[in-house]
Amino acid sequence: MELFIKREDLIHPLVSGNKWRKLKYNLIEAKQRDQNTILSFGGAYSNHIYALAAAGSIFHFKTIGVIRGELTMPLNPTLQYATQCGMQLHYIDRDKYRQKEEKDFLEDLRNIHGEFYYLPEGGSNELGVKGCAEIIKEIDMEFDYITTACGSGGTLAGLITGLKGEKKAMGFSALKGKDFLNGKIEELIGGADNYAHNWAINYDYHFGGYAKLTRELVQFMNDFEIKFKIKLEPVYTAKMFFGLFDLIKNGFFKMGTRIIALHTRGLQGLEGMKEKMRKV
Description:
44% of the residues lie in helices and 16% in strands. It is an alpha/beta fold. α1 (17-32) crosses α6 (126-137) and α7 crosses α8 (180-189).
């Protein structure tokens, strides 16, 4: 069996990994619409918020981050960096956050902040999927599976559409729950019948949910870095690689299978998770 890692984490020092892919066509679209302000959503440790703030600073967009939860001082490294890039942070409680895709709620935000280009949580929309689909074009070898960590589903949806029914794509959910992402993926790829048999999401390796971790996960992450000289982070990439290694060990894949695993970066989250990692 062979396992290769596609190093999306090396695309750009600040706007890297799947975030570069998802932002690419959205930034172009915002510019074409003469929209100078981009508003999006994320948690306190969001890679998407971090990357959007960086991209806004680089490409001269005003950015607004709607953050799940209450303002907590001092700001964690993710949110501190976002503010340093000029991002305006707007905090809402978790109940309100669930309305993030509702028209009336977005209209309320426009009344507060003025007109903006709306970018869904995680950058997962049609243009984000288009950007992630380009990952497949860059792979110049034969393979059987391509895998990625999953949060909002856009990266996996892009891989599925890029494969066009050929080869198989597997996502590893970083969030607690069962099957909740499947409907989102079907929506992003244009319906359940599109590429229906070449993808799946594994929900068994969330380690308690988003930004949750265990001693076992932290140990795996540290061992991985020592052995392969590649950094992971505990929110997404470490969970995917742990799950992938476990499936290989337990005979999920047939002998001779060639797998390509995406390293989608998110390493900025390491700084904010250090205290949690020390505790376990």
